Amino acid sequence: MLRRIAVFAALLASAVTAQAQPREDRGAAMGEFDFYVLSLSWSATWCQITGERRGARQCDSGRNPGFVVHGLWPQYERGYPAFCTPDGRNPSRRAMDIAETVLPDSGLARHQWRKHGTCSGLPPEGYFNAIGAARAKVRIPAALEAPRDVNRFAPLEIERAFAEANPGLRPDMMAVTCERGMLEEVRICLTKDLRSFRPCPEVDRAACRVREVSVPTAR
User: Fold this and answer.
1) Pairing with 196, which of 7, 91, 130, 164 sits 20 to 30 Å away (CA)?
2) What is the CATH number of the domain that holds 71?
3) pLDDT tens digits along 60-116
4) Spatial separation of the C-alpha atoms in residues 41 and 45, rounded to whole Å
5) Is the residue at 57 inside a domain?
6) Closest Cα to residue 198, out of 166, 174, 165?
7) Residue 59's CB: how many other CB atoms inside 10 A?
């Protein structure tokens, strides 16, 4: 009986997780979406789980002090467009020069352009400039700028800290995600013109639902 209950619980959890995953609309029309999500990655978590094993430069001492931009993602109210042109038009050297000022790695920049930037309706230079504009819109709370000690926070505490640091931003306009019990990302929803924050129920529902997350020390 206990085994059956455990199996049922696992299946139920898988079903809930599957329902929480937004629908990806590959090959969608360029520029036709409802809003943006700015994804800010906690670099120390990514490095601990993935980056150090890959030897990523982002994980060198002094290169991952806290949050870095993961990407700027066009979104529908439900689901999101992706890979909106077949070849993704490789960004020019000028575009990559801009990308290097807003993203931690050139490989990440090219991937973000192919998967998300092609859906923005902008040329590569415009897309990377939009990432910079979105990042400039968000102020990082003082407690999360570059902590030197491992901390633990409830996801809602992190959301409230961002809301307090950014007038007009509310918890229903963002999501805190986690991986292996550690802070992974803060995803913040912005209007299509990047002028203001806006509610995003589907993004909010995908937030981490644990009681607390660990925030590894910035390096």
Assistant:
1) 91
2) 3.90.730.10
3) 777 667 899 999 999 999 999 999 987 656 899 999 999 999 999 899 999 999 999
4) 8
5) yes
6) 174
7) 20
Domain count, the chain: 1
Residue 19 lies in a domain: no
Spatial separation of the C-alpha atoms in residues 32 and 24, rounded to whole Å: 14
Q: Is 76 exposed, middle or buried (0-12, 13-18, 19+ CB in 10 A)?
A: middle
* Host domain of residue 210: 26-215
List the one residue out of 188, 189, 176, 187 whose CA is nearest residue 215. 176
- pLDDT tens digit sequence for 173-209: 999 999 999 999 999 999 999 999 999 999 999 999 9
Q: How far apart are CA 25 and CA 47, in angstroms?
A: 29
In a domain, 20, yes or no: no
pLDDT, mean over the chain: 87
Note whether residue 18 is domain-resident: no
189 in Cβ contact with 34 (< 8 Å): no
Residue 18: burial class (beta carbons within 10 Å; 0-12, 13-18, 19+): exposed
